[in-house]
Amino acid sequence: MKAFVMNKYGTGDLQFVDIPIPKLGNNDVLVEVYAASINQLDLKIKVGEFKLILPYKFPLILGHDVTGIVIEVGAKVSKFKAGDEIYARPADFRIGTFAEYIAIDESDVALKPKNITFEEAASIPLVGLTAWQAFVERGFLKKGQKVFIQAGSGGAGTIAIQLAKHLGAIVATTTSAKNSDLVKTLGADVVIDYRNEDFELILKDYDFVLNSQDSKTLEKSLNILKSGGKLISISGPPTPLFAKEFDLPWYVRLATKLLSGKVRAKTKKLGVEYEFLFMKSNGTQLGEIAKLIESEAIRPVIDRVFPFEQTNEALQYIERGRSKGKVVVKLK
What we know:
The two termini are 14 Å apart. The protein has helices at 40-46, 118-122, 125-138, 155-166, 180-186, 199-202, 215-222, 240-245, 250-259, 261-270, 283-294, 311-319, and strands at residues 2-6, 15-18, 28-38, 60-61, 66-73, 85-88, 101-105, 109-111, 146-149, 170-175, 190-193, 206-211, 225-233, 273-276, 302-307, 326-330. The protein is an alpha/beta fold.
C-alpha cells in the first residue's frame, strides 16, 4: 500500500512509499481509507515535541483521523462487519491514517454519520472527541454556564462552539474580524477580534475556558474565571496528574511538575482549577457525536481538501495557521 512515512523527527517532508498492508489483530477492523484529516498534533509529533510523552518508533505513519470502509474484521470483532462505513481516531501508538489501509481496534471505531460525506466525517474524530471530553467527560458543562473557547474558527474551535451551544452554554470566542460571521453561525454569543481587542478586558466571571493557545493566553484566561471556575488546556503545560494517568516515567513526571508549576500556583491563588487534556480515542463517544451530527446539532467545517498525494502540502498549509475549520486529504 501507499503511505506517508517519517523516519526521524524534523521539519522535512514525509516520504511517500510502498509498505505492506497492516496485519489484523483479533479485535481489529481493517479499513480502506477514504479520507483523513490533518491536526496540529501531527505537526507536533513530526518535529518531536511530544517524544517524551509519545515515544514512537520509526518508521512512523502519521495521521490521527480516518474515515473509510471496513474490508475485513478480526476473529473477536462483534460490532462491525465488512462493508461498514466508519470513522475513527485510532489510539496512540496505532495511528497511521496517511495510508491506503489501517487496522484499528474496534473499541475506537464508530459508524460514520449517515448525513455527511467521507471528507466531512474525516474532519471530526480528534476535534470532536477533544470537545466531548473537555465539556462532557471532564468539564460537566451545564446549561446557562459561560464558556470561553479560544480560536473559534480553527478545527477544534468550530466543533467546540457547536457542542457547547448544544449543551446550553453561553459561548465567547476569539477570531479575526473576517471570520466573525462564521463563528456566529456556529453559535458564538460573544465574538472578540483578537487582533484589535483584549479578551481579558471584556470577559469576566466565566465558568469554563477551553485553552488551545500559548502560555501567555493561558495565564490571561485564568483571570476571567470566577471563583471555582475551570480551565482545561489542550496545548499544555502537562501536569503531574496527567503524567500519572498515562503512567509516564518518573523523569517525565518531574518535568511536568516543573512545567506546570507556575500555572498550578496561580490557579491555587485564584481559587480556580487547571487541567491538561490529552484526548483519548473512544468509539462509544464517537457514536454519541455521530448522533449529534445526524440531528444537525453539529456540522463539520472544512477549509480545504487536498488529494492524498499532496499530504505534505496539506501539512504545510496547516502549519501556516490560517485555516478555517479542518483540512482533509482525500484518497477515494
